[in-house]
């Protein structure tokens, strides 16, 4: 009996300042009331097989080796920080946050796990799970971006509100959301740490998906640094602004021919003729006149 008290005291003392502040005044029961609903805002030991995973969990990939390392730590130290759940009914709970601890505890062979029980509807579940993971878990950039997008769409938050909720500047939120405009191949590479956030932010400034993928393949093949990718992107943008030198030479010669045509037509019609053409070779001929008599003269030349 005294051992149980000591372990409960250790657990309570190991919650840490942040969670201790969050749960201040909450009751730790040290056991699960199996036949009735637990009191909300309490910490209780809950049977792991009574807990459902969180359907709103933003993390889609858990590193197995990292989970096994955490499981070994749990075998030695126990659960330092309780998971958070909501109670669906007697002996039925749903995870809000702490899925890594929950999964590692299963690997460690634990039968029960300490959990903070709180009240939450589906939207609150989603918002709490997303924000909890963004703030506490090592999500990859794509998971963060998807979490931000879900908070905007499913929780009806504006970007300013979202920034306040997650403690980030609006520009930071925007930069993450822009990643979702990248083609799937690049998003997967970012998710799997093949490229970094810096690489992705450079690639997103390329206008077309085809060019994005071409540069991306070069980045992976040559293991280019972020600075080198930024340089490649600048070169692409500058090349787009500058005309092709060969094309410029061709149109320069074409312009001379047009001037010759203008000169001959001006001489033939006795009035200043303008001949204009665009890069596609399309254009117009302008024949000005200052009176009806001059118009009739021009029409006679044209055999009209």
From TrEMBL:
Protein's UniProt keywords contain Cell division: no
Residues annotated as domain ParB-like N-terminal: 44-134
Name of the protein described by the UniProt record: Chromosome partitioning protein ParB
Pfam families: HTH_ParB, ParB_C, ParB_N
GO molecular function list: DNA binding
Keywords (A to Z) from UniProt: Chromosome partition, DNA-binding
NCBIfam families: parB_part (TIGR00180)
Any GO BP: chromosome segregation
